[in-house]
Amino acid sequence: MADLHTFWNELDALPTEETPLTAAESDRLADAVLAKVHAESGEAPRKKSVHRAKSAKCRRVPVWGRALAGAAACMAILCGVNTVNPALAEGLPFVGDVFSFLNQYDSKNQLKSDRLSGYAQQTAVPAVPESQSETGESSTASPYTLTLNQVYCDGLYLRIGLTLTAPDGNDSLAGYDWLAQDPGGEGWIEICQEQADGTLLANGQALYPQNGFVFEKVDDHTYAAAMDYDLADYNGDTAAIDCQLTVAGLTGVQNAYDADGSYLRTRLDGRWKLNFTASSGDTANRIGTVSEPEVNGYTLSSVIAAPGETRVTVQLSADTPEGATLQLFSADGQKLQCASSRPSADSSAVSYDFDAAPADAAGLTVKLVDKNTDPLVELAQWDVSLPTE
């Protein structure tokens, strides 16, 4: 933070031949740009809370207004909004749109999609403190609120967006870089036995998160997490999935180390239970077709391009090398990242889950390569056609 303040101070001192903007002009310029952002999205600007209005005022006007002018100031404000809050730049709710916010984080196990929020069900369901009795009294009250903000289900995955917040004026979360559970830490066995480790009960069937519990920092009072549950083994009804999620054992993590070389962690107060219903819909999923499914003894079984991910399944041959793996590319050569893979029961086929294909992609290229060779040996390649949306 000190480096950022130094940057702003140096920017503030830069000479300019333009006449500096007054504070009132800067305010009007910033408000006009933000109004334009919301107009582009078709959504009216949100009313600011006292806390957020104060924060926005501190970061948007004084430096840009005095150091830059005219069109240069407009560009600076737009870039600043996108950097500090990409969800706001897209005209989306800041805290509510967890999926969009987390797209900025580079997590190998987190499926990425810039369209997920458009298909997700927007919610605002607060979790109930598990210690809360039927009378509403809580024996171990937590100062934090866990909220379900978004639900998405396409038949391949059930994905939920959560936020953990502290009330304004409560700065007990401010010192942490992220929030997470501590596998193997205090009470971990009991947490697992009670299925409070991220396990989702879907119509009573246990589903396990692909990427664990990790809440990224939004601001000093708010942290956001996205949970991805693979439905490949789910055998229940998808028309209405009654879901139950229990959360316990969260810790505040600092990007610093103790004497043992472990991250500094502090156990947070709170245990919550969340109940909600999700319904699956695959109408937005696009099924890929290929003219020659079998190449060099390998068969491309299916390609499903969903708004949230792309699933590719390949049948292997008897002499498939141990290092065989799939790669997926859009028509312009962009490589889509793979988040996970799962072999079939007899290991004769493997399904790979990649980031979502672009909405306008009419085709994809699938390559099967041997990752243990340098340069990579290509075992098979398929050109896949996708129906347009």
What descriptive keywords fit this protein?
single chain, 389 residues, alpha+beta, eight-stranded antiparallel sheet, six-stranded antiparallel sheet, 9 helices, 21% helix, globular, disordered N terminus
Fraction in beta strands: 35-45%
Which class of secondary structure composition applies to the elements? Answer: alpha+beta
Outline, from the CA principal axes? globular
Strand line-up across the major sheet: 1-3-4-9-8-5-11-12
Query: Stretches where pLDDT falls below 50 for ≥5 residues?
Result: 1-9, 15-19, 22-28, 32-93, 132-139
Q: List the total number of helices.
A: 9
The rounded Rg comes to: 24 Å
Number of strands: 23
Described by strand count, sense and barrel closure, the largest sheet is: 8 strands, antiparallel
- Which percent bin holds the helix content? 10-25%
* Span of the ends, CA to CA: 44 Å
The pLDDT mean sits at 79
